[in-house]
Structures are given as structure tokens and as C-alpha cells.
Design the sequence.
């Protein structure tokens, strides 16, 4: 089998050990992960199968996790993980999309057969694919268990990246930087929006220097004209304007590690108010990168940014950034640290963030974002695209 | 605003009317949809925002649904729907990824403010993004409400496609047929797997005859070598072999309406057992298309297929197909009808299916699938790629 695993077995062992310690501290015996990023981080499992119920189970008594999924995906688990055969378990296929039964009925039987039916069990209550119905079947099938919210236990364990993970983060950042430059250099009036999207996909997958890219957790976001403050629309066949703003928010992924990046382009001479907003955003992100050192509290980072916006007459509602790392659709957000007021997380070296820095005014929006890693010297940019409003004449 | 809505207002009104009738028959007063395909089908709402809590609410007393989502996506709702301003409601951004609070807390307040706090409310208990935690917040915030599972009420309402929807289904099918032909014609030994993936994305987005494609609900699935029975792996940089099987399962999407398609290619002269399996699959799908007429029960369609497999010494566990239509990541499956034993749905004209027809043996797998629409004359193929094992010399 020629599949190259993204990490050595030691890395997965260390992660499992770390998570078991966190479980012990939290008084948990069994953890059920449904978040595909958590499943992948703990075991290496990597397949587009998260549209079906599946899980990775970790019990304090186990050396290695147990993968549970569809029969058709057993081969994917065999290829992508180091799990021994007895730790790869499939549920009956007739349980899929069944009006009364559910794949988690089989999961309950597995848990009972291991003698864990009265365990303290943590589930990922707010993970994207952990549906209310899955939880009901689990609670009904294991009436003696004590269920708790994992509160993102594995997401939090993922927060500080290992050296091996940082290699992928940097490669992803190099790819997205290259894609951003390529795409911007090809923008011209009349080019339909969907052609820009097609170019992004081709470039982010072809990658750079022999390092290909994976699918990213969200589609390329490309807005222009009246829609620069409606950032999540699907592309259309609308042609790029002769003059005006183009907003690009893209990512690239290496072995599912994501580096997002946003840039603002103006075709033709930009109006003063666009230039001014862009300058303030760059100034704000500069200040953020300077302060983002180990020991600093996250809300202080947001404070620096907000003060610069306010001093210039702008404001941004909501958070200005979030932690990043391994992820799967539909989101490249790690769902732990939010760079915003009230977030008391203390920065540590190796944490990675996307400082989104998008500011939307009534008439238009702009964003000049960075993916960065926290270092002793401050936030070190992973990406390397010019940090300014890019003007195409 | 130059955004072209995919359907006329009448189409959305008809859908809302149909769903309200189904709600009345089911004894429901309020329906909360979180499935992005259901949200889009009812209102036109179209944005990559499903990684955050959001919903479309429909109450029997309302003429039009209410959209609820993040502040940043209000503009997307304004652009893509016909909803009046008072039916577009945002929740407070600080509720996002908050350890104690949840955006559905605001949703509860909205429901109370409308006087619906003791209503019989259907939620989509098993929709991908309807998390167990969202449901807990809803139940806690509305203690007098009677909660019921919608049991896919809107998914079932989507089952028979309108003429306007069939236009997009056919366009999507033409795009994926073109993509499949293009990709196959460029396959050659040594080509890295990721380059095939990049080509698929570029082709399925560039579309055909001026009809561009949207993002599809799953990534292209491209397997070869030892991995043809591990169908959901991410691509790698492994080169195509000098000789051997290549399996492709792709889709294209027009205004989010999906047509999936699988083909099996053999580079070099195929072994007899591969040819034989492919021939049997084609024979089986032929028989399926012939029988798939209005009035036929779905399990009979599966029976025809299974008998042809068995007669030739093969078998396939699990279902052989599923209904298709509008969808969003991570799944192009409509999650209603499954072509398998026990499914008693009676076929009606305008239903669309992907007959997946993949058969995995111990050593290899093959699939020659079709997307089709049920007509009086039988299952009419939407796609038009040669239905045979494709041999590249």
C-alpha cells in the first residue's frame, strides 16, 4: 500500500496520551468523537465519509482508539490509520437513513459489549455532524451511562501545533499565497466570477514544489460589485467590473491543515475611502502581529485591533480571528479560541490563528487577513502575499 | 443587484404552500429547518454559512418563511431571497462558539416574541448541522413547546422535481458528463492523482455552453491501484499506474442541483474478471432503467438489480441508489428514498435518483452509475457518458 501517512505513529500516540490525560482530569472514562478533524487528529482517519454517522472512541483503558463507521469505509480506515484490525468496527448498512433505527444503535451495542455501559461518556454536543437524533439514540441505548459535553476537549488539545503539524501549516500557507498571487495576476474586467473560482481550485490543489493541496473546508469566496459586504455567496457568471473592488478569501490545505488568506483588490484607481480603510486594516494587523506573543491574553490582541479601528472612525462587530489547524468541511475554524473581547486564553508558542480583519461598511467591505503562528518574537506570518490594497490598472 | 434568482417567486410560493399543507396534515404549527438544502429550497437562500447555526422558520400563520442567521449573512439573505426585511433576522454575534450561550438562545426569544412558545414545533433532528447542543438550547429555551422530529418533511416535499428544477438537473448532468469525458480522455500513466482532481474541479465549475457549475456537495472521488475498494480517500500525489483500474465518482451542480456519475476505466487490457463485472453492472443498470416507471415500488427496482448480480455470482450489501436534487456539502444524497429492500416508496414521474451500482469485490471494485429521472417510459438517463468499462490503450 503506497499511502503515505501524514505523521509517524509516535505523534498519534502522544496525542492519544494527551487526550487521555485531559479525560482523566475532567473525570471522563469514554470519549466519543464525531468531528472529522478530531477523528483524523487522533487516528489519521481521512475520508469523505462525514456525511454518515461515524465516530472515534477513546476509553481510558485503551492504548489506541476505536474507529466506527460504514462497512464501505473500513478499507479507508485500514489504509489511513495504524489501528489494529480489532479497533476498526463497522455498523450494519441497513441502519443508514432508516426512519426508526440509527447507526448509533450499533454503537451502543459495541459500548455495552466492552463493559462501558455505565461509564461517564463525553460526546461532542456541538460538533457539526453530531446530530440531535444521534444523541437521542445514544442516550436511549445506554440508559446507565452518564453523558457529558466534551466541551471541545480534543479541539483544545489541538490548539498548540507540533513541529510536524507546523510543516503542513507552512506548506498550506505557501500554496494559498501562490494561489492568491496567481489569481490576482489573472483578474481582469470581463472575466466571469466562476472562472476565478475554477482557477482557485486548480491552483490550490496543484500546490507548489511537489506539495499538492487537499480539498479545503470551504469554497473560495470571491465577491465584487455590490456584493463585497455579502461575503459568503456562491460565485455566478457575472463578469468582473471595469472598475471596482474584488474581495478574495481563500485557503489551501496540506494533509487537511488549513491556511486561510483574504486580500482586497481594486480594479482601476481606488476611491480614497477604500484606500483609507485598507491602510487602517494593514496598520491594525501589523499591531496584532507585534503583540501576539506567548503570555498575552487573547482579548488584548483584539483590543489593540479595535483601538486602531476606533481611532480611525471604524468598528467591527464580532470576533476578528480564530484558531486554525487541521479541518474538514464545512469550516476551517478550530472552534476554540476566538480573538474577541472576553476570550481569556493565554497565547502560547505554536498556536495558529487566522486574523480575519474583514471590515464591512455600508457601501463596501475590505479584508487583508493573515494566518500566523505565535512565536516569542510575536505573530509570525505563515503566508507571504503583499499586505496592502492591491490595485490593478 | 444583478444576482439572478434560480426560480420565480411563484415556485417558492408553491413550495411554501405545499410544506404548510404537509405541516397541517402532520399536526405541526412551526417548522425549523437547519438543513441548508431545505433552507435554500424554501427561500432561495444560498451562502456558505452552514458551518454556523442558522435556520428557516415556517409557521402555519405565515405567508413567507423567516430566515435567521449571523449578522454577516443578512446581506446574503437579502441578495438571494425574496423575503421581506422583517423576515430576515440576525442573532447576536457574541453567541457564536460561546461556551455557555448559543445562537439558538436568540432563536427562542424570536419564537416567544411571535407568540409561538407553546406551539407544536418540528425540528430536523437528524439534519447534518442540527447539533445535539442546538436542540438542547431550543428545548430549554422553550419549555412549553411540543417538539417533534420533522422526519424529513421538507426533504420529502423535494422528492418530485418541478419542470424548472429538472432544467437544472439536466444541465448539471450535461456538465458532469462533459467533465467525465474530458477527464477520462486525459488520463495517462504517470499522471498524479491530484492533477486529475484539479482538472475535475476546473471542468465542473467552468461548465458547458455558458452554464457554469457550483461547488459540489462532495469532493471528486478518484481511486486506483489497491484503493478501488476504499472509495472515499482524499487524492494523493501517487501517479496513475501503467496498467490497472481507475474509478471515478464525480458530480456537477447547477444552482446546487446535483447530478452524480461514476465510471470505471481500465488502463491497458483489462483482466477478464473486470470486464465480466462491468458487463454485469451495465446489464443490471439497464434493467433498473427499464423498470423505473411511475407506480413501481422502489424495493422492486433494487430486486431486479440484486437478481442480476446474484445470477452472475455477485452481491452488493447496502443500498444501490438514492434520491437526488438540490444539495449542499457534505452530501448530494436527498436522504429520503433509498433504493434497497424494504423501501416501499412508489415511484412517481419527476423523482430523480443516482443509481450508484458500485460493486466491491475483495481485490477490486467497479461502478458504472447513472443519474436518472422517473418517466412514463422508465428511468430516463440525465447523463450521457458511454455505459461500459472504458479501456484506455
Sequence:
Amino acid at each position: 500500500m503506497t499511502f503515505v501517512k501524514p505523521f509517524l505513529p509516535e505523534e498519534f500516540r502522544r496525542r492519544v496520551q494527551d487526550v487521555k490525560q485531559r479525560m482523566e482530569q475532567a473525570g471522563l472514562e469514554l470519549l466519543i468523537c464525531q468531528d472529522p478533524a478530531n477523528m483524523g487528529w487522533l487516528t489519521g482517519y481521512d475520508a469523505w465519509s462525514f456525511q454518515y454517522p461515524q465516530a472515534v472512541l477513546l476509553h481510558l483503558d485503551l492504548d489506541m482508539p476505536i474507529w466506527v463507521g460504514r462497512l464501505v469505509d473500513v478499507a479507508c480506515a485500514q489504509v489511513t490509520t495504524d489501528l489494529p484490525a480489532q479497533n476498526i468496527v463497522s455498523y450494519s448498512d441497513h441502519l443508514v437513513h432508516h426512519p426508526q433505527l440509527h447507526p448509533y444503535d450499533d454503537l451502543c451495542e459495541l459500548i455495552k459489549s466492552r463493559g462501558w455501559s455505565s461509564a461517564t461518556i463525553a460526546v461532542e454536543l456541538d460538533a457539526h455532524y453530531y446530530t440531535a437524533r444521534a444523541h437521542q439514540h445514544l442516550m436511549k441505548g445506554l440508559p446507565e451511562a452518564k453523558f457529558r459535553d466534551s466541551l471541545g476537549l480534543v479541539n483544545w488539545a489541538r490548539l498548540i501545533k507540533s513541529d510536524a503539524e507546523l510543516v503542513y501549516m507552512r506548506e498550506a500557507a505557501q500554496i494559498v499565497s501562490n494561489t492568491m498571487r496567481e489569481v490576482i495576476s489573472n483578474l481582469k474586467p470581463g472575466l466571469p466570477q466562476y472562472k476565478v473560482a475554477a482557477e482557485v481550485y486548480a491552483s490550490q490543489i496543484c500546490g507548489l514544489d511537489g506539495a499538492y493541496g487537499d480539498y479545503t473546508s470551504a469554497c473560495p469566496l470571491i465577491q465584487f460589485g455590490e456584493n463585497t459586504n455579502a461575503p459568503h455567496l456562491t460565485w455566478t457568471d457575472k463578469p468582473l467590473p471595469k472598475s471596482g473592488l474584488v474581495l478574495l478569501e481563500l485557503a489551501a490545505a496540506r494533509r487537511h491543515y488549513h491556511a486561510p488568506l483574504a486580500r482586497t483588490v481594486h480594479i482601476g484607481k481606488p476611491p480614497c475611502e477604500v484606500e483609507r480603510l485598507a491602510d487602517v486594516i494593514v496598520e491594525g494587523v501589523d499591531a496584532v502581529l507585534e503583540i501576539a506573543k506567548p503570555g498575552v491574553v487573547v482579548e488584548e490582541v483584539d483590543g489593540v485591533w479595535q483601538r486602531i479601528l476606533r481611532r480611525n472612525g471604524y468598528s467591527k462587530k464580532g470576533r476578528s480571528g480564530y484558531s486554525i489547524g487541521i479541518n474538514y468541511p464545512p469550516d476551517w475554524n478550530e472552534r476554540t479560541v476566538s480573538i474577541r473581547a472576553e476570550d481569556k486564553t493565554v497565547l502560547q508558542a505554536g498556536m495558529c490563528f487566522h486574523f480575519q480583519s474583514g471590515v464591512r461598511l455600508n457601501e463596501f467591505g475590505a479584508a487583508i487577513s493573515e494566518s500566523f503562528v505565535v512565536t516569542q518574537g510575536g505573530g509570525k506570518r505563515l503566508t507571504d502575499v503583499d499586505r496592502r490594497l492591491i490595485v490593478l490598472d
